[in-house]
Design brief:
Layout lengths: L1 H25 L3 H27 L7 H17 L4 E4 L6 E6 L22 H13 L2 E9 L8 E10 L3 H6 L1
Antiparallel strand pairs: 1-2, 2-4, 3-4
Helix pairs in contact: 2-4
């Protein structure tokens, strides 16, 4: 089972690289590629949350902090085989950072494609997190703060919780 997980992860990483390469051919502007990857990730996140909740049997998180810890310690481990460290903003209670020492999506990538300095190669991750959070009624802004592919020492994803979304079925009962 672990062996199959590793194989499927490697296949995903290789397929993802081919997808990004194709998008770079299809779109001239990095921002268009970044938007496409985010939108694709968002769609995946919306669908992935059910699988995550079923397979992980996690309890409902009571705070943003618990939610981010769940993303780092359970979700990333389950789907990418890594556990990012979490840091919190010193100024606000709704801003967190995931620090990825290793990022499996770039295992076979040395550098960004030539002339693609604004490309956010792993932007799909931001979309996945945003989509999954929305499905549990949390609106968030998710983006890359640092990126090893752009010369930073590590990869860092920022998550800023915006507000708790209204649960539609509760709204109807009022």
């Amino acid at each position: 089972s672990i062996r199959n997980g590793i194989r499927s992860r490697e296949l995903f990483v290789l397929t993802y690289g081919a997808l990004v390469a194709q998008l770079c051919k299809d779109y001239e502007k990095d921002e268009d590629v970044n938007k496409y990857l985010d939108r694709m990730g968002y769609d995946i996140g919306i669908r992935l949350v059910e699988d995550f909740l079923a397979r992980s049997a996690v309890k409902k998180c009571r705070s943003y902090s618990e939610t981010v810890d769940m993303i780092a310690q359970v979700a990333f481990k389950m789907y990418l085989g890594i556990t990012p460290s979490v840091s919190r903003s010193n100024t606000t209670e709704n801003e967190f950072f995931l620090i990825l020492e290793n990022n499996p999506l770039v295992d076979f990538v040395e550098e960004l494609p030539a002339g693609r300095t604004s490309l956010c190669y792993c932007n799909i991750l931001c979309g996945v997190i945003r989509g999954a959070l929305e499905m549990v009624h949390l609106a968030a802004e998710v983006n890359f703060i640092q990126d090893r592919l752009k010369g930073d020492d590590f990869t860092e994803i920022g998550i800023t919780f915006l507000k708790k979304l209204e649960d539609k079925k509760h709204k109807r009962n009022k």
